[in-house]
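User: Sequence recovery, please. Input:
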């Protein structure tokens, strides 16, 4: 069993019966008293961030998780279907396990994080940025750039994002899947 000396960012541990990722940690050694490790843990199932303090040398239960490359195939009534890039095995994942399902398009590569002991998928991560085509947006008004004005644009996946006024229909843009916002125009 591991101790708090093994804690690092991105480590998956079993904390109070839930699988959690270590988002941030800090080893603190006060002048008086014993050392401790202050952590921020993100619960995988709920996405909630918890703060916890472990005494230095306390035992922690490290869980093994694997990131596997998958390709998005299609969506049906049971969820989203993905295919493993090497074994061609197909897996169905419910929408709540995907970080930004509105930006998924057929053939897109994603990573699915799987609990190694139970072989159950924990969550699906899209790349940080995806390039998508704008299918509809209102034409921008010339000279209306005194402020950081934006307009709605519908993407090829059906999602809508706010874009600057100079972006037109038929252009490709890069979208940040972590914040669900426009990033830049793709040439």
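Assistant: Recovered sequence (187 residues):
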């Amino acid at each position: 069993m591991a101790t708090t000396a093994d804690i690092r960012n991105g480590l998956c541990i079993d904390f109070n019966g839930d699988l959690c990722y270590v988002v941030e940690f800090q080893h603190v050694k006060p002048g008086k008293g014993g050392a401790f490790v202050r952590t921020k843990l993100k619960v995988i199932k709920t996405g909630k961030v918890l703060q916890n303090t472990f005494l230095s040398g306390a035992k922690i239960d490290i869980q093994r998780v694997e990131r596997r490359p998958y390709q998005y195939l299609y969506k049906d009534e049971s969820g989203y279907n993905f295919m493993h890039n090497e074994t061609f095995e197909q897996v169905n994942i419910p929408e709540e396990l995907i970080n930004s399902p509105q930006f998924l398009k057929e053939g897109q590569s994603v990573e699915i994080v799987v609990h190694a002991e139970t072989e159950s998928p924990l969550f699906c991560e899209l790349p940080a940025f995806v390039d998508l085509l704008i299918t509809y947006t209102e034409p921008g008004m010339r000279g209306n750039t005194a402020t950081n004005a934006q307009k709605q644009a519908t993407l090829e996946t059906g999602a809508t994002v706010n874009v600057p006024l100079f972006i037109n229909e038929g252009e490709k843009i890069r979208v940040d899947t972590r914040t669900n916002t426009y990033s830049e125009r793709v040439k």
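The chain has no helices and 16 strands.
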